[in-house]
Amino acid sequence: GDAEPLYQKALQLTQRLLGEEHPSVAMSYNNLAGLYQSQGRYSDAEPLYQKALQLYQRLLGEEHPDVAMSYNNLAGLYRSQGRYGEAKPLYQKALQIAEQSLGVNHPNTITTRENLTNLGLTQNDQKRTAEDAENTEE
């Protein structure tokens, strides 16, 4: 699509104006990663989500809401790839940070809690489907 060059240009401009070590650069990584994820380009999205997370951790500290958002984004990517075992601890980490930094009733905290719950439901559905398949084969 037409969005990719714009996102890349935004990232380059942000890096040039603010330097690599700036939260806005992490946000640009997140935006580009989100675009790639929406296009199903998971292997392009993952390193950008990871870079954003590491940058936020370094600049803002582990307990910052933007770090929680980054964990949530990476977990969402893993979930859309069916990598549930990798997604769950990231959602848990995101929820823990969001509850502490934003409060339990903040919209971002609620969204993260729902993501974790939905992941559990998806895993249970998959387990049941696998068990049903095994039972059918007997």
UniProtKB/TrEMBL annotation:
The keyword Repeat applies. The keyword Repeat applies. PROSITE patterns: TPR. SMART domains: TPR. One of its GO terms (molecular function) is kinesin binding. TPR repeats lie at residues 26-59, 68-101. One of its GO terms (cellular component) is kinesin complex. Its main location: cytoplasm. PANTHER family: KINESIN LIGHT CHAIN. This is Tetratricopeptide repeat-containing protein.
